[in-house]
Amino acid sequence: MPFTLKSKVALVTGSGRGIGRAIARQLAAAGAQVMINDLDPGPAAEACALIQGEGGVAKSLAGDITDPNAPQQLVDATLAAFGGLDIIVNNAGYTWDNVIQKTTDEQFQAMLNVHLMAPFRLLRAASTHIRENAKKEAAEGRRVMRKVVNITSIAGTDGNPGQAGYSSGKAGVIGLTKTMAKEWGRYNVNVNAVGFGLIETRLTQPLTGAGATIEVEGRHIAVGVQPKVLESVKAVCPLGRAGTPEEAASAVLFFCSPLSDYVTGEVLICGGGLHF
């Protein structure tokens, strides 16, 4: 069954690289106008230019989604650029791992801020637009479906050693998803979550030498996975491999499409059958 997202406006956080960029590209390819957001201006601009080069419509606004003012600014910028907001994908995030006795308050709170507080604030910022338009459409006898997709993880559903903060944030966003599905059902908004397993991104690249880092708020945070750990995880995954960003994005695209118009409050695991 073919579908189109023509006339739809999508906002995707953390879409300068990796899975977020793949999500934005697939939404644009389906016809949506896309607002790109990323912590770093360079990747945000690159993703925007890539989509435009592929014939899609996109604009970008870089900024730290954990800044309390950023979600409202992002919603306002999207409405100003495209005149609407139909699809929200809360994708931005990163890992900052350690066993609990070595995890600081700052480290734990950082995981909650990016994985749970930021999605909460973004949905709160969008609520006025969503509610007002839904009421107007209902008065006109029209049903217009809107979509929210929150990104979780099998670390949030099953837990994972060394990820107390990350797992807690990803578990929390499931509760947010289920609650918003019940609050916003009356406004014809499908609110669902996609939980990823092992997906090939810079956060899951094999560790080599001194190891890769990402910079967040002036902190240099190590990322990557020991090669032996990667191989062991792939070995217990029923499909025997990591997923690609494009495969991850396709699961999100389903929840952004009309194919999911009667699906809400659900968590779809895109992990090749892997469970921790």
Question: Which SSEs are present, and which pair or pack?
Answer:
Blueprint: E1 9-12, H1 18-29, E2 33-36, H2 41-53, E3 57-60, H3 70-82, E4 87-90, H4 105-139, E5 146-153, H5 154-158, H6 164-184, E6 189-196, E7 212-216, E8 219-223, H7 227-236, H8 245-256, E9 267-270
Parallel strand pairs: 1-2, 1-4, 2-3, 4-5, 5-6, 6-9
Antiparallel strand pairs: 7-8
Compose a concise summary of this entry.
The protein has 276 residues and is of the alpha/beta class. The chain has 8 helices and 9 strands.
Please provide a written account of the structure.
- The chain is α/β, with parallel strands linked by helices and 276 residues long.
- The protein has a single domain, classed as Rossmann fold, CATH 3.40.50.720.
- 44% of the residues lie in helices and 17% in strands.
- It contains 8 helices and 9 strands.
- The chain has a 7-stranded parallel sheet with strand order 3-2-1-4-5-6-9, with helices on both faces.
- Helix 1 crosses helix 8, helix 3 packs parallel to helix 4 and helix 4 packs parallel to helix 6.
- The chain is globular.
- The chain starts with 8 loop residues before the first strand and ends in a 6-residue tail after the last strand.
